[in-house]
Amino acid sequence: MTDKTPLPTKLIVLLAFDKGEDGELFPAFDAREMRDESTAMRTGRDLAGKHAGVIAWSRSADLVNGEFGDPVVLFQHGDVPDMD
User: Would strands 9-19 and 25-27 be described as parallel, antiparallel, or unpaired?
Assistant: First the structure.
């Protein structure tokens, strides 16, 4: 009999921000889950000149129990809000 306990997953996310007329940052699009870290960093570099800020990060995730590890920034450029 094999153990069917799910292994922890790594979430890799990319998000870009633009600035409104008031100077406040807002997401340019919904957060995008990326397939791997190198794709997230490459896409982040590609978007860096098109938005006020871009950030890509990863974190471990136990989706069954709803537990998430601390985010690890993979790429950051420009203005991005603090990650809480």
Answer: antiparallel
Average pLDDT of the chain, as a whole number: 89
Q: Give dist(CA 32, CA 17) in Å, integer.
A: 13
Mean pLDDT value of segment 55-82: 91
Read off φ and ψ for residue 46, nearest 5 degrees.
-65, -35
Angstrom distance (rounded) from CA 31 to CA 17: 10
> How far, in Å, are 10, 24, 26, 50, 52 from residue 21 at the CA level?
36, 7, 11, 17, 12
Residue-wise pLDDT tens digits, 3-32:
565 565 899 999 999 999 999 999 999 999
- What confidence category does residue 77 fall into, taking pLDDT thresholds of 50, 70 and 90? very high
Burial 39-55 (b: 16+ CB within 10 A, else e): ebbebbeebbeebbbbb
